[in-house]
Amino acid sequence: MSDIIPLATTTQPTTQPCKLHPQSMCPAFGSLRILTRIEGSHPVMATDTGCLYGLTFVTHFYGASKSIVAPQLGTAELMSGQVVEGTRAAIEVAAKEPGARLIPVVSLCVAETAGMPEELLPRRIGDAEVVLVRVPAYAIHSHPEAKDIAVAALLNRLAEREGHVNSKSVVLLGEVFPADPLMIDAILRRMGVSETIFLPGRSIDDFRRAGRAGALAPLHPFYKESINTARNWGMPVVGGAPVGITGTYAWLKSIGNILGLDPALVQQVADEERAKATALVAERPLSGRVMVTGYEGTELAYARMLVEAGAEVPYVSTSIGQDPLVLPDELWLKAHGTKEVIYRKALEEDVAAIDRYAPDLVFGTTPLASVAKERGIPAMYFTNQLASRPFFLTGGMSATIEFVASVLTKGERYRWMQEFFTTAE
Amino acid sequence: MPPTVLRDLSDTSGYWAAVWSMCPMPDVHVICDAPVGCFNLVGTAVPDYTDAVPHIENLTPATMTEQEVGGKGTQDKVKWTYDNLAAQGILKDKHVIVVSTAESEMIGSDHSALVKQLGVGTRFYYSNSLAEDEWAGRDRVLRWLWDEYGATQSAGIATIPTAVNIIGPTYGCFNAPSELAEIKRMIEGAGGTVNIVYPYETTLSDTPRLAAAAVNVVLYKEFGTGLATDLGKPILYAPFGMQDSISFIRELAAHLGTSVQAEAFIRNEKRTTLQAVWDLWRGPQGDWFGTLDMGVVAGLSHAEGIARFLGDEMGMKVVFAAARPRRPGDYDNESIRQHIHKRAPSFLFGSMNERIYLREAGSKYTNFIPAAFPGPAVRRAVGTPYMGLRGCVYLCQEVVNRLYEGLLNFLPVDAAYAALRSPAAAIATDSHGNIPWTSDARTLLDSTLEKLPYLPRISASRQLQMTIESLARQHGHQEVTRELVEAGLAETKQ
Questions:
Q1: Interface predicted TM-score (ipTM)
Q2: Could you tell me if B493 lies within 8 Å of chain A, comparing CB atoms?
Q3: Chain-centre distance of CA A91, in angstroms?
Q4: What are phi and psi of B180, to 5 degrees?
Q5: Which has the least CB within 10 A, A32, A115, B373, B444?
Q6: Mean pLDDT for each consecutive 10-residue tract of chain B (494 residues)?
Q7: What are B367's strand-pairing partners?
Q8: pTM (2 decimals)?
Q9: A370 vs B: CB within 8 A
Q10: Are the CB atoms for A105 and B35 separated by under 8 Å?
Q11: How far is B324 from chain A (nearest CA, A)?
């Protein structure tokens, strides 16, 4: 090993900050969160112990209180090719759980498990479907995108395509605050929608019923595999989301068009909703410069709402990759004063943006929020504080902007804390 | 041999052990040869909840993608990462260590030659993550740090007669700040001075000074003995409980030649710190300990120590004490889970895993007290030790306060207030006269109550009886049948 190793020369443009610290949860977490929350679902994880420890740790905090089994995969098992055998043994253990109806096999980064051949796993065991969900972090890059992988895998296996299609029903796709589905369902029913199915939720049967819905409406812009699945079925897909004033108006009209609802009724509901949202903003406009830099894949939509509410949002960054699904929001933002939209962002880019834009408020990842607080700038963890409130339609807009407005008044406390902890005396 | 199936790990891998042991030292920078997830979990997502830090700042990934996994290897990425960190001045005055992960080991990445082409002093640590668990990993990385950064440079360092090292605490060690504060206090009380707390409160450059200590105290039995052995001085383990703590002080003092001071410290501690245990023991609270049962699943030191103090000294009945790593005969998580599902003890010390098993079992009468990772817990206040003399007081106090909490939750509150919120709640207490119970029904109720911890049993018995009888009245039954009991139990499980 004494030979000099030939290495590629490092070329890094000097104008852009170097992407040294990528910002995403472990991508696989996105799928585990969804898979552990389904009733009767008992995941099997095929991976090494460090990965298993970390992923179950965060899943037991943010996902569900659910015991998780895994084959032991150390050097001995990997070298002797026991990955499939061990996984099958773990599937049998999972199948013994009371009420087991779904056993997602989650394969992760260790090369041997990432390439697990699905045909060597059982398709069913007892009452449970066995579904392979491949989420190697090195290929998925962000946890929102892993949510999509999990949902698509379940739809492909479970969705029922036979039988009567309920042409006035719609599948709404995306993890949302529990109050959001109630509000969305109510407004859609007023327009003539017969049924809404929210995925991913607690019910495995919702995945089955989803196959016979009239349309798919992704509420978040990273469900591209799931959208492909719907398109392959010939199920129409609704673009956009019911976010903010213009976004909600366009979305409601689009749902009406795609489902063939009564145009006059749809127009009436859309007009009412737009008037309510406009009045809300007129009554309580936001003012201040806000950076929206989470890693949930929903950042552009939040930025758009805040801009409509009166805030200045010069910089938006997210963990997901650039994609046609996010493009409308990006174009809208750039037409409304946003100077930069960064995909697959790294900590360095967000930190440089704090220096460049001197924001009044930062929503970011935990490392970024801590950097902002070290500068005395009000900052919060996007995931815990923004992404966990009502967001959609006027009700969600009201909850979200009211919260943002209240945080914008807290500058004094953040400056006091910074001064207290950074001065020596 | 049939494959082993794991349930809810209690410990992590050698890679985590390495990062968590190296990164508390501010003059270290670790480049992990890892995909994004192994960087995020180890550096941010988990230490947010184990150590209450926003993120580990001196850790950078050489982010592995499809390209690297697909045959290119990770060496270019490691060099790119090193060069860019260096260009930004982040590596100034730092010892750089490249650490492997299970994922990089699987594709055969060995950077021991590559690091020689990076800045002077850069080293490669093979974390052996596919084979080594957290405990073996923690033990080995401490030895490696001494071998690489301490042993040869320590030649001229003389032993200071009263100096004591504390070996072990790092990121991801349960309750480390409090345990450490108490053990330091006891070392000083015994007449010693703390030399180095390794690696929690030192720098890597200071590693050679480990040689100056006369005694090494290993904070956690589950790792650290390797380094303590290499240092060649007497080894003591941080104690739990009254007797072991007193023995620890005496033994340490014997090594240091400070026995007179140590005996005075012991006398004073009995009159001050430990007086609380004596007071509780003589008071009504002390009576409870002998009537309670407990289980513990934790790191070896905590599992042994909590069982020894609350069991052997205070008289609680220890139904299981399972250590991680497991000693011969210790329950694995599968067995712990079955045990809890069958009958949960009134106190359970453990991790998130045991907490989940309690929820699955609907054991709302069990007091869960965190005693191990995994699981989110802020333990940064230094006043919550389980170890040492103050640990005895804290554990007693915690148990008694939990009992108070449970009892207060059971005292009757006038039902009219509940009826204000929900009219249905009023029915449960709307009792007039007795309803006869069939013997079948009575047997089922009794066997259900048998499974509950002793103290809440009395109150639960009254509550269950009331719920079932009101169900009987609601449905116009003249007697309580087995079916009604089943329905009542199902209702209260919700």
A1: 0.91
A2: no
A3: 28
A4: -65, -45
A5: A115
A6: 90 97 98 95 96 96 89 93 96 97 91 93 96 96 98 94 97 97 98 98 98 98 98 98 98 98 98 98 95 97 98 98 97 97 96 97 93 96 97 98 90 83 60 76 85 73 80 83 86 67
A7: B347
A8: 0.91
A9: yes
A10: no
A11: 14
